[in-house]
Design a protein that fits this description.
Blueprint lengths: L2 H18 L3 E5 L2 E18 L4 E6 L4 E5 L15 E14 L7 E9 L8 E17 L4 E5 L5 E5 L15 E14 L1
Antiparallel strand pairs: 1-2, 2-3, 2-5, 3-4, 5-10, 6-7, 7-8, 7-10, 8-9
Length: 186
């Protein structure tokens, strides 16, 4: 993974913590867990199978043009009036890592494609990194982590995390960011 990509992902994770801290599902005894899910429902307003485009109408009446990739077969099955449901979820976890785990990051992506345009489609991305605690500012609730690339990332820790005082410099932390998109047409 390149230096700039790792930095961008680390910044994204920091922003997720900051943007989701008010939506935290709670802190587990051993870590932090936050998630957010957005469900969008729309109606098919028009379909152009030749150009591989579909126009969706949201509940508020706004139109959303969508390009449909070649990997989606059976676009001709989609009809004006079909209901489309899209569910987008993001989850962020930060838990203690095994002291023997090596610093590093990896990214996995999974696509569960449909055999037709009306079947359920799921796309899941998972980014996971093991970092080491470089510094802790208990008073301001800021933890500085360093990954395999060596760039430090400062993270603000939400007040819901009650055991921050137990984290020590040198501890290893595993961060996992999961993103999923599920689409169904009826």
């Amino acid at each position: 993974m390149t230096h700039s990509l790792l930095s961008a992902i680390s910044l994204l994770i920091a922003l997720i913590i900051l943007s989701f801290h008010s939506q935290a599902n709670g802190s587990e005894d051993d870590g932090i867990y936050v998630s957010n899910t957005k469900v969008i429902e729309a109606t098919v307003d028009s379909v152009n199978a030749e150009k591989r485009t579909v126009v969706l109408r949201g509940k508020e009446g706004k139109l959303y043009p969508v390009e449909v990739g070649e990997e989606i077969k059976g676009l001709e099955e989609i009809e004006v009036g079909n209901k489309v449901r899209m569910e987008y979820s993001e989850t962020f976890e930060m838990i203690p890592a095994d002291p023997d785990e090596k610093l590093g990051a990896h990214f996995d992506a999974k696509y569960s494609g449909p055999s037709s345009a009306k079947e359920l489609t799921t796309d899941v991305d998972v980014f996971e990194e093991v970092s080491q605690v470089e510094a802790i500012d208990i008073e301001n609730r800021i933890v500085t982590l360093k990954g395999a690339e060596g760039d430090p990332v400062m993270l603000k820790v939400d007040d819901s995390v009650k055991r921050l005082d137990e984290v020590k410099v040198g501890d290893k932390i595993k961060t996992r960011y999961t993103r999923s998109l599920t689409i169904s047409v009826k």
